[in-house]
Amino acid sequence: MRSTTRITAILATALVAGALTACSPGGSSQVSDDGTGKVVLWYLPEDDGATFIASIKEAFEAANPGTILDAVGVPEDNYVTKVDTAMLANQPPDIAFMLDAKWIKAGRLAPVDKLLSDAGVDLANWNPVAMSSCQLDGATYCVGSQQFTTALVYNKDMFDAAGLDYPSATEPMTIDEFAELSKRLTQPSDDPAARVYGAAISGPLNGMTSMATFYGEDGTAAIGNADSPRTAHLFDVLAGLARDGSITQPVMFANKSSADLMSAGNAAMTIEGVDYVGFAMDAADRRWGVAPPPVIEAGDTPYVFSGTDRWAMLTGGRNNLGAEKFLSWFAQHGGEYRLQLDQAPLDTTQLSEWAEGSESRGEMVQVLTLATHPSPFIPNLWGFTGKLDDLYIQLASGDKTDAATELTSLAPELQRQLDEAWKNWEAIR
Amino acid sequence: MTLQTIGRRRRPGTRTIAWRAVAYVALIAMSATILLPLGWMLTTALKPDFAPVFTPTPQWFPTTDWEWNNFARALLDPARPFWRYTLNTVFIVTMNIVGTVLSCSLVGYAFARLRFRGRETLFAILIITMLIPWQALLIPQFLLFYNLGWYGTMLPLIVPSFFGNAFFIFLIRQYIRSIPVELELAARIDGCNQWQVFRHIVLPLIRPVLMVCAVFVFLDSWNDLLGPLVYLIRDEDFTVAIGIANMVTSREPHLNLLMAANLIMMIPATLLYFLAQKQLVGGIASVGLKG
Amino acid sequence: MAVFTVGPIIGSLVISFTDWNLLSEPGWVGLDNYARLATDPEFINAVNVTVTYVIFGVPIFQVTGLLVALLLNLVLPGMRIFRTIMFLPTVLSGVAVAVLWQQLLSSEGAVNQILRMLGIANPPAWLTSPGWAIPAVIVIGVWGVGAGAIIYLAGLQNVPPQLYEQATIDGAGPIRTFFAITLPMLTPTLLFTVLTGIIGAFQVFDMAFILGGPKGGVGGSLSFYLLYVWGQAFGNGRLGYASALSWVFVIACAVVVILILRTADRWVFDESESR
Q1: Are A330 and A119 in contact (CB under 8 A)?
Q2: What CA–CA distance (Å, rounded) separates B62 from C27?
Q3: 3-state secondary structure of A147
Q4: Where are the domains of chain A?
């Protein structure tokens, strides 16, 4: 009783497998020995992904006659299930967006370090925090092209009007300084349309701080971190601001509303994806600036989240040579096509070109140099860390009041689930 | 038909003006609670990109933004060939309706009228199969279809409907059981066999419930996302639901396009329902049953 | 049916005795997955959430569905339009409905603005307030009650008109007519809608998934049972445990369903048997 095939066999015999003649599955792709033919790529159509993929497809096919990039968009909510089942059916795509590190652990993705060095890519030019999500035990498993940065974005006109200095792009403020700023920027009003929040903040988890704050540097200890006085202080300050209306209630509007609030002039600061808020601010003709998110105590290492798109080669794909050819081409040229779409490229040597002519973008590039220290990897993180968000929501609404007590009683449960997540992770072979 | 449909109503005397007024007030109130949110959807669908969707006061009707172009963008995006998706979806939906109505009406009739050993036990088992969550069956079913060589084809989305569906069998059985049995007995006395009774007596009588089945099967398979997504692997086989799901992303949700696409998605099902109503309301009265 | 259901059913039972995570070879663990249940606080929470929803949701949906059907069964000019309008929410895909209601039920949303106008100073935060999340999902369910109503509507077509004529001759008013004729004649439909309503309420998934996210809302308040099963199977990669959870679910629901079917003979009017 030790194998997938056993289980399938039990099923198959219990049924009618033989009764119906199998017809050949639709996705047969020609296997070639020179990498020509079809290269199947699955992508998330996120962030105008479809537009980007279309331009990539055209350029790659022109550069590699005989190779066809068959790009298929797969909805995000069910993406992992789709890839998992395709692996079960031994028909994974050749290239896929890497959404779940368990595929690395299970050996389903091919390492790309050699491919990258052969292609002449210097990993030093790719942001280390962004690339950390592609790496496990020192090896790299995926290739990126775009730079996503999460940082503090603020409305410069509102700072001017309040007679406040712009936040520094190089030196993070503390959470207490942030609280002071929020209070001074707030303009209460009974009319929701005229109200101005000091900041639109969804909670302490979303880009605010590294997961090390809650789970330690190696991501294994909730007890001693999630219940530390530092963490309690972060919760207390933010929840206090939310309670007195200086920052938004965490769930006031549905997700992604911070960009809406910023562009409508209802919020002076936010901690969000810079590109996303920036686009909205530009569209609304508002002047914006970028700064690192606040730190809990003076002297802390600032935490700036940096991410990228993650393209991996699957070991069970039909056209491995074609996949290698594509990834190698993509590693060299992906950034150019990001630039063409006016999206920030991952390669730092290309970033200045993107930022040219925009003070705000320049500030983002400056802030990005602080993104050197990745958040620790934690398996199935979003399966349990939402409990911290839940606690924050209850503190912010006033249902609960004392962060330290609540965190102390929550920590053992977090620890239990964290241990379990690591155990499940280790069971992946 | 008209005389009978009107004639079957309750005592005409109760249908006073006041009665009607009350009914209309209730109907209009209900309609408003349904239409206002849909108005919000339309407002959102007509907004330009990056315009705030979540406004402090909800906008129930479009007043400032009129980006009708969004409907065209949602529908004609070259990355999402919606016409192709629509054809695929219509094919799958049609096969499902045909399969379900055929198989479930037969089985439902058998459970309602035929007497055979173990009928009640078999029926209880049928009900129990409805309890098993698809979440638990997804992977075993996937392995089955994969081993049949059906991965990457539309067969897993179509063939099962021809083997019945517990929900609809149950629905049809209950409906048949509430029909007076005399007509069928009379037909048997006149020399009809079981099949002829089913074909000429029962089938016309259960038209309303078959329409209900068709409408529900339509909705289920029209909106089904996971099934097509797990089994289909080529973009040209994809369905409308996948196309729409591809518009929702956590990073940059184009809510305006999403709402536009959803409003368009509603049209076929709404039309079908509007047209089906004639069949739906009729039933016994429309076949002129005399007690 | 047997072909495509029974096989996979046996398959899922087999999987429930393993530690399969989809990616690695499964190992046989016997009854471990079932033993785990007793010590899993999230499992207990999921049971609580689901049972609460079933107990309060099912009667509310049944009564409103029937009332709406009775209203829609009236013969009035323009009824076809009203019937179509009531049906609209059913036609909308789950994502659109969820996004819509997230906006309407947010703490500053339309529903609360109306409540404030009605003099309720501190309306709940609905979906994000643990005690109010289930009522919120019930509200959304009532909004979409048109689907259940059309089953009742079809059932109402089956009531022989001469029975109404007889009642009229006997001088029965509309309320007596309803209880003496409509309701008894509707009991086969009622059995169907009650049973499938209960099963549907136990199996709530899509709406909870979109409204509360895979983690099941604030404080697990939207952690419906099957959402938890899904999270364990595909989020946490524990297909074996998820299958065990499913089997416990099936057995518990089966007990409820069998109890109802047992009582059905007593209250369901059956043409086949009675004449």
Answers
A1: no
A2: 58
A3: coil
A4: 5-146+309-356, 149-305+379-426
For residue C190, give both structure tokens: 């009622």
Mutate to test the interface with B, among C103, C225, C259 (most CBs of B within 10 A): C103
CB C16 within 8 A of CB C246: yes
Instruction: Tell me the C-alpha distance between B208 and B277, whole Å.
Output: 9
Q: Does B163 touch chain A (CB under 8 A)?
A: no
Neighbours of chain A (3+ CB pairs under 8 A): B, C
CATH code linked to domain A149-305+379-426: 3.40.190.10
Residue A32 — pLDDT band, cuts 50, 70, 90? low
Q: Name, in order, each residue with C-beta under 8 angstroms of C87's C-beta and a sequence gap of 6 or more.
A: B270, B273, C146, C147, C150
- Touching chains, B (3+ CB pairs < 8 A): A, C
Class of domain A5-146+309-356: alpha beta
Gap between the Cα atoms of B231 and A6, Å rounded? 22
Minimum distance, in Å, between the CA of residue A105 and any CA atom of chain C: 9
Q: How many helices (H) and strands (E) does chain C have?
A: 15, 0
Quick check: B242 contacting A, CB < 8 Å? Answer: yes
How many helices and strands, by DSSP H and E, does chain A display?
18, 11
Domain ranges of chain C: 12-21+28-270
Option in C100, C188, C247 nearest B177 (CB): C188
Percent of chain C at pLDDT > 90 equals: 29
Domain A5-146+309-356 shares a fold with domain A149-305+379-426: yes
Interface of C with A in 83-102 (CB under 8 A): 99, 102
Nearest-neighbour CA in chain C from B63: distance (Å): 17
- Chain B residue numbers with beta carbons less than 8 Å from the beta carbon of A25 are 149-153
What residues in A contact C102, CB-CB < 8 Å? 254
Please tell me if residue B141 touches chain A, with a CB cutoff of 8 Å: no
DSSP secondary structure, A372-405, as one string: -SPPPP-TTHHHHTHHHHHHHHHHHHTS---HHH
pLDDT tens for chain B, residues 1 to 291: 333 333 344 444 555 678 788 889 999 998 998 898 888 889 988 988 777 776 666 678 888 888 888 888 877 776 678 888 989 999 999 999 999 999 999 999 999 988 888 898 888 888 888 888 888 889 999 999 999 999 999 999 999 999 989 989 998 998 888 788 888 899 989 988 989 999 988 998 888 889 889 988 998 888 888 899 999 999 899 998 888 888 766 555 677 888 888 888 888 888 887 887 777 665 444 443 333
Q: Is C88 helix (H, G, I), strand (E, B) or coil?
A: helix
Tell me, yes or no, if the pTM score tops 0.95: no
Which pLDDT tens digit goes with each residue over B227-284?
A: 999 999 998 999 988 888 887 665 556 778 888 888 888 888 888 878 877 776 654 4
Looking at domain C12-21+28-270, its CATH architecture is Orthogonal Bundle (1.10)
Query: A48: Cβ–Cβ under 8 A, 6 or more apart, which residues?
Result: A341, A343, B252
- Closest residue in A to B250 (Cα) is A46
Q: Rounded to an integer, what is the distance from CA A347 to the centroid of its chain?
A: 17
Angle in degrees, 0-180, between the axes of helices B166-177 and C183-202, rounded to the nearest 10:
170
Residue B248's region, left for phi above 0, alpha for psi from -120 to 50, else beta, is: beta
